[in-house]
Amino acid sequence: MDYRKKETTVVVSQEEISDGIFDLRVKTEAAGYAKPGQFVGLFPPSDGHLLMRPISICESDAESKTLRMVYRIAGDGTKLLSGLKAGDNVEMLSLLGNGFPTGEAVGKCIVLMGGGIGIPPMLGVSKSLQEENVHAFLGYRNKDTFLSEDFRKYANVHIASEDGSIGVKGNVLDALTAESEVKPEIIMACGPMPMLRAIKKYAEENQIIAYISLEERMACGVGACLGCVAKTVNKDAHSHVNNTRICTEGPVFDAREVEI
Ligand SMILES: Cc1cc2nc3c(=O)[nH]c(=O)nc-3n(C[C@H](O)[C@H](O)[C@H](O)COP(=O)(O)OP(=O)(O)OC[C@H]3O[C@@H](n4cnc5c(N)ncnc54)[C@H](O)[C@@H]3O)c2cc1C
Ligand code: FES
Can you tell me the distance from the alpha carbon of 52 to that of 108, in angstroms, rounded to the nearest whole number? Predict the structure, then answer.
């Protein structure tokens, strides 16, 4: 069943898990329907009627009806969200986007890649996979890591850092090439655009299927404002243009189908 609702949720907890990175849990029935890679729209508490801020679902727990989101303070909206405390109300639009096609990963060597604040949605993906051969490559700026211990419950963890203070010096692809025994058959990734471009190129050169989660500034989150289009290789059947909406047709795309 599709769950699509703007609702008032209650904050279960919020803590700062690394410098400027917040771990927010809210109570909602949506937790019973969420797919890894989907996102929610959180409305920052304000009298100024701010637009929703799109944040990926990091984990969902149907039993406790809890959704977990992990985000970095980027500007005013996320700063306001970071002030939320247990028991506060927060307006949320969910469930948004398509999610990763985890069913396609069955029986394969799966490589999950997360860069920076693209790491949180990959935790939900790793949790949903029942496979043996799951590798999570996590890329950080420095040794201030977050969520890596959570990943260890579900995947073999490989770390990269830009400054080399932990793991392999460089990005997630540098860490993958350093692990010659890991032979990915399917890649699922979220992170900054340069990282996704490099993964698309790597996957095409090595004939590996890759699914990438794109980010764009969003206003409505439901396909109405066309504020979040990405260029596609194929023309849309209705509009006959090479565009797609990240909020509804994405945010997860087969890397071969988008021009980034
Ligand atoms: C589908 C999706 C999932 C996301 N998931 C997460 C997540 O799990 N955790 C997380 O920390 N962030 C996530 N983001 C990014 C997050 O939505 C933005 O950081 C947030 O909206 C910024 O709002 P703000 O008011 O704090 O900052 P603003 O003042 O609006 O912006 C601050 C700075 O960030 C830039 N920016 C804002 N939004 C984006 C964006 N979407 N992409 C690139 N740059 C942006 C602005 O250009 C500006 O430079 C996601 C975005 C999308 C589209
Ligand atoms: S955010 Fe409005 S169409 Fe995607």
Answer: 37
